[in-house]
Structures are given as C-alpha cells and as structure tokens.
Amino acid sequence: MDVELPILQFEDRPGVLDLGWGHPHPDLLPVTSWREAVQESLEVFGWRALTYGFAAGPGPLVEWLGEHLALTQKERTPASQFFVTNGASHALSLLATLYTRPGDLVMMDAPTYHYALRIFRDHGVTLVQAPVDDEGIDPAALDVLLGRLRQVGERVPLLYLVPTFANPTGKSLAEEHRRLLVEGAHRHGLTVIEDDTYRELAYDAAAPPALWSLDCSGPVVRVGTFSKTVAPGLRLGWINAAPHVVRRLVGLGYVDSGGGVNHSIALAMAVFGSSGRYRSHVERVRDRYAGQRDTLIAELRDAAPLLEFDRPEGGWFVWARLPSAVSTDGLLVSAHECGVSFTPGSVFFADPGNGAHHLRLAFSMLPPDQLAEAARRLGSALDRLTDASGCPADTGRPVRPRRAG
Ligand SMILES: Cc1ncc(COP(=O)(O)O)c(C=O)c1O
Questions:
Q1: What was the pLDDT predicted at 391?
Q2: Where does ligand 1 bind, in terms of residues with CB under 6 Å?
Q3: What is the pTM of this model?
C-alpha cells in the first residue's frame, strides 16, 4: 500500500489537545477570499504575475503595504525601505547573513522566539542573553554590557527582540524602554532587529509605536509577515531597513538570479490588500483570537489557580509560571498523561537553565470548547503533581513527548 506523504508541518496526536503549536485556527484561513484575490491578480497583472519579479518586491504590494502601515505610524515608509521576503523566518536568516560573521555575538531578548535562536545559531554566532527587567530589555544594563563587550574586543552587530505582543510572553516593551533602546543602539553602532510579527493582533488597545517608527535612519530593521494575519502557507513577509541595507539585499546573488522573492503571491497580496479584503479579514481574526484568549484565560483561572500569568493584550500566547516546587518538565509528563500539551519555557532562552518553571500556551489553533477542555486537563495535570488527585479517567493517555512547533 502507498504511504500517504505529509502535506503539513502540524502533527496531530490523537487524544491530545496541544497548546504547543503557534499555528492559526484552520477556519481563520481565508480560502475563499484568497482564491478571489489570486484570480483577480491574474486578471489584472496577466503574464506579469508569472514571470521574474522586481528584486525588492513588486510595486503594487509595496505601495499598498506602505499605505497600510502608515495608518499606525507617524511617517510613511518610502518604497526604498522595503524588501519583500518569504516570511519573517527568511528575513531573519537574510539579516543574519548580511550583518554577522561566524564568531560574532548576537544579543537576544530573554525569553524570546525559540526559532529565532535556531536561525541565528545556523550562522555560527554566539547568542548572549540581553539583561532584562520586569518591562523587558533593560536599556541601561544593556548599555553597560555592550560597553564591556566592546572593551574586550567582541563584535556585537545585532540585537533581536519581539517588542510588541511577544512570542512567548505576549508582553510589549514599555514606550520609554523603546526610546532608550533605540538611542543606545545608535551610540553603540548596534543594529536592532525588531520582529513585528504580532503588531496587528492587538485585542484591547492599539499596539505601541514600532521601534522602526521611532527611528528609521539606521539602528532599527523591522521584520513583518503575513503569516499570522493572513496565512503562514503564503510564505510572505518583508523587511523595512535603511536604503543602503535594501540595496545589499537586492544585490544578493540569489536575488539577482531568481528575481523578487515569492513574486506571484506578493501580487495576489497586493490585490488582497488594496481591495479591502485584508482589512476585513484581520478584523475577523482579531475578534476570534481575542475570544479564544478570553476563553483560555477564564478557564485556566478556574481550573489551574496555581498557574500565574498576565492577560496578553495581543498575539497568540499566554506565558505562565508554575509554583517553584513544580518543574515544567514534570508537568509536561503529567500533562501528556492527561491528554494536553504545551511548549516548555526553557526552549525560549539562549542560556540553558532558564525557564524551568514556565510554559507557553498558544490559544491560536484550538476552538473555544477545546481550549476550555485543554485548560481543565492542564489543571488536572497540575493537581496530580501537587495533591495527587489524578486526571479525569477518560482523558488520560500517555503520549510521546515532542518539541512543539
Ligand atoms: C516572533 C515570530 N517571528 C517569526 C515567526 C515566523 O514567521 P514566518 O511564518 O513569517 O516565517 C514567528 C512564528 O511563530 C514568530 O512567532
């Protein structure tokens, strides 16, 4: 019999409600309106949608995106400061190629997006945890650390962070910290990579100003993506950077060889955006994700009162802390026995030994009834560790531990 070859990254584990995956709810992927946009883009652009594209990204996308982003920032970013990518992951890898050489130090927020750690490590750099306080990166302590590292001859070209509705914490860097961080970066000749993946998924109030909008003259490079707002399968995102950086990206051999990255999809996105489909889609998903967040939080407060967490004002994640007597690794085993899973906190830190009492819970992928059930199972798993009351008999089944995506 033929083996069915996989289509998706997601791996279903029967019987397990998995809060580990930072993936969208399938119902929220815009199959119909995207099909219309693709069709319209072929009607409007004809053969031009199917040949090699302009290296920095096709004009219609850059034009619409520039207008769209200007709605939430003081000044409109000119076309010369856009480079279209295959999503944020690709952008991070390109920026690591451009800015680093093996042996460099790269500063990382702590905790931070776990796959960014992997992407930078692929480039042979050493990751250093930036000093943090309750508000996120501590600009004054960072200043001191950068000074010390420079004194001993270290090259520290980059700092990476997700300052708005972060993965995994859901938190946003305070506005004063943003300003000080950008000023410090200027002084130290440090480039700050602002991963702005979750900016549009703001549930309670407008997102804080992007670091990019505080200073687009050089110290900040912003990375954006359509993965969370529209669909990760499109593999479409962008970099905002000073014109000389965009020129270097455009001059990369593989861009010269292949032309604009993901050209056809970029043109379909231009239609999706300029026709108003993007705006109405994002409004819809924002409401749904806000509802999913509220369900998970309400149920966790009820079923797992020992977990401590803040209500995230945007993004896809709840970052929870366990009592110090309970380790995340222990909870993960118990959780699997109760039919629920999550991502352990330790994977989000550059330095080993951190995050042993934290866990990330994604509310993006499961519908409200399953989120509520997952929270109840997590509560039971925690009870088993703390008072041995056991998980509900019909939900418990042992599963193979796995690193969540
Ligand atoms: C902070 C952050 N950056 C980047 C990515 C990856 O984005 P993309 O699908 O555009 O590569 C993710 C996805 O989880 C993310 O959370």
A1: 57
A2: 22, 87-89, 113, 162, 167, 195, 197, 225, 227, 232, 237
A3: 0.95
